[in-house]
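= Protein in question =
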Amino acid sequence: MTSWRLGIASGLAAVAAVLLVRASGDSAAAHTWHALRAAGFVTYLLFWVSCLSGMAFYLRIAVPRVRASALFELHRVTGVLAAAFLASHLVGVLVDPWIHFRLIDILAGATASYRPFALFLGAAGAWAVAIVVATTAFSGRFRYATWLNLHRLAFPGYVVALFHGLLAGSDSANPLVLAMYGLTAGAVAGLGVLRLAGRERPVPAAVSVPGR
């Protein structure tokens, strides 16, 4: 449960920081936008690390000086932290004084006046993260096959989060930002090719669902 406590504490701290920025005087609009964009970048990178480490763990890819148990813990903790920073990103979007997003815009995306398709992709990615994290937290209530199928929503969730960042971000044309998106997506695609090529993870005699 340590990772969940860490995630909750981090999420509350990040949300408090965004709200504090929102209340910071005349330049709050610009500050809030920068804060929610920063939270969005952190969310994306944590989500990427979680996906990458989860795929590496599943495929039994040897990482120098990293034990399989540590790789799994990295996958688990970064997933929880991604959800925590996602919460702060969504709160920042909701309280942003410039575009005036509504709650339905956060939940559905396509109803937003600002780049509705990009916001729709963001909403789909957020729902995927929420489902994956929530079902992992309560994995003991699901059959393993059901939990695994729900957990695989992380892959389409990552893809839509990637395109959300590219299409919604006001700084997506920045060469450094484009390089970050390209390198991270390339790493996930590389492991995805290994998975599709038929490399299977050897399953030990006793397998337990993470979080049980």
User: Anything to note?
Assistant: Helices lie at 2-22, 28-58, 68-95, 103-108, 116-137, 144-151, 154-168, 175-196. Residues 202-212 have pLDDT under 50 and may be disordered.
